Amino acid sequence: MLIPRLRCLLGLYAVRENDPVLAAAQFQALARQILMLYAMVSLNAVGLAYTHYGHAPDWLTLGPPIALLLLLGGRSMAWIRAARRAPQGREAFARLRVVNAFTALIGILASLWAALLFGYGDTAGDMHVIFFLTITMMFCVQCLAHLRSAVHILTTVAVPYCVYYFAVGEPQVQMTIVTYILVLIGSTVMQNFAYRDFRHLVDLTAENGRLALTDTLTGLPNRRSFVARLEELHLRRRVWARHSRIMPGMASALGTRRRRSWWSTARTRCRPAMWLRSSPAPTSKAGAGRASSITI
Question: Where are the domains of the chain?
Answer without folding.
Answer: 19-210, 216-245
